[in-house]
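Researcher: Next entry in the queue.
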Amino acid sequence: MPSQPIDEEKPRATTGAHVSLRDRAYDALKTKIINCELRPGEVLTVASLAEDLGIGRTPVIQAVDRLVTDGLIEVMPRKGIVVSPISLDEIFDIIEVRILNECQAVRWAADKATEAEIEAMEANLQAMRRASQERNIERLIQLDREFHRLISAAAGNPVLSEILGNLHDRSVRFWFVSLRAPDHNARVCDQHACVVDAIRAHDPVAAEAAIREHIVAFQHNITNQVLLNRPAGNIRSA
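Model: Structure for this entry, 238 residues:
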């Protein structure tokens, strides 16, 4: 039996409770969309979301408004609330900005990375190889995000790290599409290994070339998978 939703419209002792519930709803829904638990093109209702989250309608409506601004949810005539379809335009835009920023980040990481930071990258790579062999997709995605976070941290620029964190969050949704390609997981591990090798050698030129190849390979793979699965009705071509 679902838990009784918290009624946000009842008076609270502090306004902090309102912010907390709104943010909780936003974070939960964003995670579900990014992880494709709420699939592209899926029609939603405030009532069903509120029941699922155990939160009142008001914070859910506020969260939906923020997700519309983020481009993750659309409000469509006669349909209502819809999870934004995957768009090739969006993929290309994200990848274009990732290349510009991540190439710089990995160059700085190759210059500045400490032994401890390099060891953390190597440990992450080994964990990714194990997850790939086990076909543990959820774990693979977590480790992929962590790998790129480690590079951003080693670059030593918090502003750039924040920018890349947002880009990686928006890229995760496309991972689930790209994973349809056979042997893609193993290829990603090999690409990460090239990046780690270059950072370990403190070679910014090789590091940039490796991360660029990795991102471009992702672009080619996701584009192929999106085009192959276009009949599903939840994908928009450029």
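Model: Confidence is low (pLDDT under 50) at residues 1-18, 231-235.
Researcher: Noted, moving on.
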